[in-house]
């Protein structure tokens, strides 16, 4: 039975765990392997790890790092960063990763999603849409290369195209809300959720467990992802890996 998933998203830069605000000023917050070990103990639903250097540096995935992460991870793992070919994705799956996330390569060549789905199965393919709202007109547009390149693609229309091409899941990531910790962009979620039927995960802005509860209770079966919420604690943002207990999750979700 499908159920909502609460997903920590870890950003890796120079092999270290970092957190950004609006995709800028990455702050080192620790070792990703140590974070994975703690999340194992907390029995998280799923873990997403994104190498934010790979695309910007025009290099492929760091297979050694992925191997270490997969060996430690006791929950479903989604990896993203630098995947441009079917062969790269197959190698990553061979290391024990359950899902591969693509972003720039899918935006620049949407048919790549179809090739991936045909070769490894659509259920294993995730496309991350980094989205920013245009000041004039309020249009949501897709950006790539860590929020540096505006493709001017409409996020809603492109999500619909990805569904037609065979994507298994879409992660919509709000650049405007990244690291702000004041809640998800629910207006953006409304637009995407109404336009597609494939599984959707939302990232960017969660500042409390209540934000996650609001997202799940409004949209039902959905992925609620967060970065800052699960690596910081308190108003001074002390670094502390955390995750809701089973009882806390049950209290958040009022779905029947």
UniProtKB/TrEMBL annotation:
Lineage: Bacteria, Pseudomonadati, Planctomycetota, Candidatus Brocadiia, Candidatus Brocadiales
The protein's name: imidazole glycerol-phosphate synthase
Protein keywords: Amino-acid biosynthesis, Histidine biosynthesis, Lyase
Classification via Gene3D superfamilies: Aldolase class I (3.20.20.70)
EC main group: lyase
Reactions accelerated catalytically: 5-[(5-phospho-1-deoxy-D-ribulos-1-ylimino)methylamino]-1-(5-phospho-beta-D-ribosyl)imidazole-4-carboxamide + L-glutamine = D-erythro-1-(imidazol-4-yl)glycerol 3-phosphate + 5-amino-1-(5-phospho-beta-D-ribosyl)imidazole-4-carboxamide + L-glutamate + H(+)
Functional note: IGPS catalyzes the conversion of PRFAR and glutamine to IGP, AICAR and glutamate. The HisF subunit catalyzes the cyclization activity that produces IGP and AICAR from PRFAR using the ammonia provided by the HisH subunit.
InterPro entries found in the cross-reference section: Aldolase_TIM, His_biosynth, HisF, IGPS_HisA/HisF, RibuloseP-bd_barrel
Database matches in SUPFAM superfamilies: Ribulose-phoshate binding barrel
Subunit structure: Heterodimer of HisH and HisF.
Family matches, as CDD domains: HisF
Enzyme Commission number(s) from the entry: 4.3.2.10
Pathway linked to the protein: Amino-acid biosynthesis; L-histidine biosynthesis; L-histidine from 5-phospho-alpha-D-ribose 1-diphosphate: step 5/9
Family indicated by similarity: Belongs to the HisA/HisF family.
GO molecular function: imidazoleglycerol-phosphate synthase activity; lyase activity
GO annotation, biological process: L-histidine biosynthetic process
């Amino acid at each position: 039975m499908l159920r909502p998933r609460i997903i920590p998203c870890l950003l890796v830069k120079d092999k270290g765990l970092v957190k950004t605000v609006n995709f800028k000023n990455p702050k080192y917050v620790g070792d990703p392997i140590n974070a994975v070990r703690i999340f194992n103990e907390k029995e998280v639903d799923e873990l997403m790890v994104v190498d934010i250097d790979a695309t910007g540096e025009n290099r492929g995935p760091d297979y050694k790092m992925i191997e270490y992460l997969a060996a430690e991870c006791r929950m479903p793992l989604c990896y993203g960063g630098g995947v441009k070919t079917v062969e790269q994705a197959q190698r990553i799956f061979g290391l024990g990763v359950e899902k591969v996330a693509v972003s720039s390569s899918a935006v620049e060549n949407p048919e790549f999603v179809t090739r991936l789905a045909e070769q490894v199965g659509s259920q294993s393919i995730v496309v991350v849409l980094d989205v920013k709202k245009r000041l004039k007109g309020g249009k949501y547009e897709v950006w790539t290369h860590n929020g540096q390149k505006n493709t001017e693609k409409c996020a809603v229309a492109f999500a619909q195209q990805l569904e037609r091409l065979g994507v298994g899941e879409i992660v919509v990531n709000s650049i405007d809300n990244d690291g702000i910790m004041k809640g998800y962009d629910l207006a953006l979620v409304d637009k995407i959720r109404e336009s597609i039927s494939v599984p959707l995960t939302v990232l960017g802005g969660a500042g409390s467990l209540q934000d996650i509860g609001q997202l799940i209770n409004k949209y039902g079966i959905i992925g609620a992802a967060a970065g800052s919420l699960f690596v910081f604690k308190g108003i001074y943002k002390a670094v502390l890996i955390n995750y809701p207990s089973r009882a806390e999750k049950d209290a958040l979700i009022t779905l029947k």
